[in-house]
Amino acid sequence: MTNAPIPTPHNSAGAGDFAKTVLMPGDPLRAKYIADTYLEHPKQVTGVRNMLGYTGAYKGKPISVMGSGMGIPSIGIYSYELFHFYDVDNIIRIGSAGGLQDGLQLMDVVIAMGACTNSNYAAQYHLPGTFAPTADYGLMSRAIEAAKEQGTHVVVGNVLSSDVFYNADSSANDRWKAMGVLAVEMEAAALYMNAAKAGKHALCLLTISDHIYSKEELSAEQRQVGFGKMMEIALELA
User: Fold this and answer.
1) 20 to 30 A Cα–Cα from 33, which one of 42, 77, 220, 235?
2) How far apart are CA 188 and CA 172, in angstroms?
3) Which pairing describes strands 53-58 and 40-46: parallel, antiparallel, or unpaired?
4) Using one digit for the tens of pLDDT, what is the confidence trace for 38-97?
5) 183-185 and 201-211 beta bridge pairing
6) Is 3 helix (H, G, I), strand (E, B) or coil?
7) Buried/exposed 190-225: b ≥16 CB within 10 Å, e otherwise
């Protein structure tokens, strides 16, 4: 465990303000929606840069929810601090993704068993090879069981955590698709690497918000509040 003064420059919460399990949507307004909609007695514990974080309970179990922002650098900071400075054990990213495979439909729930990436985030570890960021098996298996009990079909497999949203290489998605990658998002790989390095646990659940090839997409409002099945699966992991 890394010792550091808290609050941090990015988080105004004090020691003990976060539960052991934290849900992390990218959008801080989605964090507020989850707290207001699902949590018992939610309390805002941080709001630095409007990156809202709340702690409450779900079915009597303590749980927190906090925004991560967009991209690997952002979730890299927030998840690192939660793991190392706030004694959080489990982080479940709940976010949106762009579908790559033909069988995926809007609102399908994807569980990221692995996270490919075009980021150099792993370079900081000076590993003698390529690291494969993967989900925590315990969290993943529990999420699959929760989805079954809920009656929600989930697709489990590899995703891409991309550093690039507007890619100058127009053929990049075709090559990832050819390798069976299900969908593209922007955060899971860093979360999985931070968890591995800290000896903690992480999982990424995604809802398909648009499809790279069919060009279908959800509205901004649907992205913010329309991911109930994914949220309820994640909440069961408290």
Assistant:
1) 77
2) 19
3) antiparallel
4) 999 999 999 999 999 999 999 999 999 999 999 999 999 999 999 999 999 999 999 999
5) unpaired
6) coil
7) bbbbbbbebebbbbbbbbbbbbbeeeeebeeeebbe
Task: Transcribe 88-139 into DSSP letters.
Answer: --EEEEEEEEEE-STT--TT-EEEEEEEEES--GGGGG--SS----B--HHH
- Helices (H), ranges, the chain: 28-38, 72-85, 137-150, 172-178, 188-198, 220-225, 228-235
The sign of the CA dihedral 231, 95, 84, 32 is negative
Q: What is the mean pLDDT of residues 14-27?
A: 97
Residues recognised as catalytic: 210
Q: Could you tell me how many residues make up the chain?
A: 238
pLDDT at 225: 63
Which tokens in the block code for residue 193? Answer: 């690497």
Q: Are 10 and 81 in contact (CB under 8 A)?
A: yes
| Residue partners of 6: CB distance under 8 A and separation at least 6 | 13, 14, 15, 85, 86
**Predicted confidence (pLDDT) at residue 217 exceeds the cutoff of 80:** yes
In the chain, the amino acid numbered 175 is R
Statement: residue 219 has pLDDT above 90: no
Q: What is the pLDDT of residues 226-237, one digit of tens each?
A: 699 999 999 999
DSSP state of 164: -
Coil, strand or helix at 149 = helix
Residue showing tokens 């465990």: 1
